[in-house]
Design brief:
This protein is of the alpha/beta class. It is built from 6 helices and 4 strands, in the order βαβααβαβαα. Helix 1 (14-28) links the parallel strand 1 and strand 2 (35-41). The chain binds 4-nitrophenyl phosphate.
Length: 152
């Protein structure tokens, strides 16, 4: 089993969007038995909460399931458990290392590093632009799936 964890700050906007989009891509390729997908936030602010309504609206628009997703906080154990820990921005990377107390590790990366954008995923909690985030997250998720398949 290959385990993939998406991480953002609140676990209500970007990382649940990435989790849902990536799970959809995995399902389309019949890889659900092989690739496990989850998401978490570096903060505890939205533990137990459903994704932001802007994220839910985008997922619904693209007919992607958001079933069962509830906010949770990233833990030290996640570092051990997951094979790919995919952050949305540089601050998430910093916070992940703070929480897990590990030296730099190649399994922790920014989503858009895998594309030619090589930048942070804008946070729609502040920008209000869920479409821009959706487009970038989809591009990153496609690149991530290609990488995982190449490494399987
Ligand atoms: P996310 O966005 O990290 O993409 O889930 C945020 C969600 C909530 C807050 C900040 C960012 N907040 O301040 O509550």
């Amino acid at each position: 089993m290959v385990k993939v964890l998406f991480v953002c700050l609140g676990n209500i906007c970007r990382s649940p969007m990435a989790e849902a989009i990536f799970r959809d891509l995995v399902k389309r390729e019949n890889l659900e038995e092989i690739i496990h997908v989850d998401s978490a936030g570096t903060s505890s602010w939205h533990v137990g909460a459903r994704p932001h309504k802007g994220t839910l609206k985008k997922l619904e628009e693209y007919q992607i399931s958001s079933e069962g997703m509830l906010g949770r906080q990233f833990t030290k154990e996640d570092f051990e458990k997951f094979d790919y820990i995919i952050a949305m921005d540089e601050m998430n990377i910093h916070d992940i290392y703070d929480i897990c107390g590990q030296p730099r590790h190649p399994k922790i990366m920014r989503l858009l590093e895998l594309t030619d954008k090589k930048t942070d995923v804008p946070d729609p909690y502040y920008t209000g632009d869920f479409q821009e985030t959706y487009n970038l997250v989809l591009e990153g998720c496609q690149a991530l799936l290609d990488k995982i398949k190449a490494e399987m």
